[in-house]
Amino acid sequence: MPMVLAANANAQGSHVGEWRHPDAWSRPAANIHNAVRLAQIAEAGKFDLLFLADGNGVRQMDKPDLFGATSPSDRPGVFEPVTLLSALAMATSHIGLVATATTTYDEPFHVARRFASLDHISGGRAGWNLVTTSNPEDALNFNHTEHVARDRRYERAAEFATVVKGLWDSWADDAFPQHKASGQFLHPSKVHVLNHKGTHFQVRGPLNAPRPPQGHPVVFSAGQSETGKDLSAAHADCVFAIEGSLPAAQRLYADIKGRLPKFGRTADDMRILAGVTIFVGETKEEAEALFQQLEDLVSPAVGVDYLSKMLGRKMQDYPLDGPMPEFDEEHVGHTGIGKAIMRMAREEGLTVRQTYRRILPQMGGNMFKGDALAIADIMEEWFTSKACDGFMIAAPVVPTGLERFVRLVVPELQRRGLFRKEYDGYTLRENLGLSRPANRFFVS
Ligand SMILES: Cc1cc2nc3c(=O)[nH]c(=O)nc-3n(C[C@H](O)[C@H](O)[C@H](O)COP(=O)(O)O)c2cc1C
What we know:
TIM Barrel; alpha/beta; binds flavin mononucleotide; single chain; 8-stranded parallel β-barrel; about 35% helix; globular
């Protein structure tokens, strides 16, 4: 299988200082023209897919410096992702369109319906990033006074995914003949009423949409905790993984793929994509200069607020140039990402300032920096040494970072035979080399 390339379609890049950079778009908030341009750049580069992270709330209002400077994941001015991807479907023809939807604060019927619709609209290019919601405050917008407890979120997520897939199988693939002459619009024998009654949901069905072109839109997830990894192994076709080093990424890759047999699946049923921000220049020096320019656009107050957000701890209490404090790993952050940051700080002996600088480009995730050959070398190493099946790439500055990647790195990956020159398939599943799931209720 060729390497998978996914583009983070956040119009504000991945770096907190990005939007202030002279090359960044002016007025990036909820701007459809920018979104179309970004999708077309990624499609010209033969990327497999565009990915939109999402949450249902505005974050960091309690951290005024960070909130005012706006970090890319605070989401004060973004589009609802499936709405946006429906528009992008009409401006593109091959690239996959992957949006995030929460299993904690949404309903399986709504999610099944939205993604079935996107799959039909796009001709089989839809993907659902299944999350349990990482931002606790989103709960306040959904009749809750606090975030649903973690175990319960994951338990609900597993049942949610089962219901969604059951709803996607509501109709046989040939259930809608729509014969004008005979008057047969649909076959009443080719519908399955789900009648799901579980712990969290009661859903009768069927879905009011024909079976999606891909059978099931491609399911993504990103959990790195034990429960998160099990959920991925049970339900995800693709996993986003964030690890800061090659050995850690190799361990995570082997761990997640090793869980698949438990759920009757094989390693080929899943693609794992490493999240990475890529700073590429015509020369190594140009890439380094861009990195420094962006750092200079983030004040220490904003940087420390950002670190506090990622760790779920108030980092203003510690000297900026002193060592990172030791925290009990179980009580860092809301997710596995906080733990990954602490591990990195400990292993590399970083100060508070060095730690926030290290994570500014992309959460606790990785960063590749250099000229095209150096970037292609490291991508090849990760890909061939089973650290990942591909990459979820964030550009430090949008759109120029993505344009540069497409112009400089993609041809080098193609020359090495690692990446496609043309799209081989029409659907996202075909391009990812994933099979189309059979309908659970109808043998075709
Ligand atoms: C690349 C990537 C993208 C993610 N996108 C979202 C997102 O859009 N919305 C969200 O609530 N969580 C998102 N997450 C967080 C994950 O859903 C998950 O909470 C996190 O990876 C921690 O895993 P854990 O819950 O198993 O500890 C993302 C994580 C990664 C690595």
